[in-house]
Structures are given as structure tokens and as C-alpha cells.
Amino acid sequence: MKFTEGAFKEWGYQVAKDEFGDITVTETELYDNYDGKLPAGKILIKDRIADAMFQQMVLDPFNRMLDAIGIGQLNLDGSIQLEMSLF
């Protein structure tokens, strides 16, 4: 994993925890704390390599695997921009 990709991942997890910690659950927390069952009212945070995510969407389009997608972008001036799309 490239440094910037890892940095975006860590930054995304930190934003989710800081801003939405009461409604989000990571996959690690899901299996460690909830026996793999998503509690009602919680949003599961999954991080995937884009190729694998899009492949799964093509192969199984009716599987509701995501409700939103967030994409980070590092700009030339050093600023970070996050785009979020809801489905």
C-alpha cells in the first residue's frame, strides 16, 4: 500500500470515529464486539481496494454492499479533499 493510500485510510477511520462514532462500526469492531452481526442503527465501515469493490458490484449488483462511498484526494497544494456519494 502506498503511503498516501494508508494515510487516507487512517484519516477516514479517524474522521468516522470523531464525527460519527456513535453510529459507525468498523469491521474489526463488528467481529470482536458484536459476533459479526451489525447492531440496529449502526453503519458498517468497510475499506476495500477500488478494483475489488467495483468487481463485486459488477458480479453481484443486487447485493446491497454499500450505501455510501468516500474518496479522498490529495491536492497539489497539500490540502485534502473528501468526496462522499450516497446510494
Describe this structure as you would to a colleague.
The protein has helices at residues 3-20, 27-33, 50-59; strands at residues 24-26, 43-45, 68-74, 80-86. The strands form 2 sheets. The protein has a two-stranded parallel ribbon with strand order 1-2. It has a two-stranded antiparallel sheet with strand order 3-4. Helices cover 40% and strands 23% of the residues. Strand 1 (24-26), helix 2 and strand 2 (43-45) form a beta-alpha-beta unit. With 87 residues, it is an alpha+beta fold.
- SSE string, helices as H and strands as E: HEHEHEE
* Arithmetic mean pLDDT: 78
* Distance between the first and last residues' Cα: 27 Å
Which spans have pLDDT < 50 for at least 5 consecutive residues? none
* Tally of domains: 1
Task: Summarize this entry quickly.
The protein is α+β, with helices and mostly antiparallel strands and 87 residues long.
List keywords for this structure.
about 90 residues, alpha+beta, two-stranded parallel ribbon, 4 strands, about 25% strand, globular
How are the elements arranged and paired?
Blueprint: H1 3-20, E1 24-26, H2 27-33, E2 43-45, H3 50-59, E3 68-74, E4 80-86
Parallel strand pairs: 1-2
Antiparallel strand pairs: 3-4
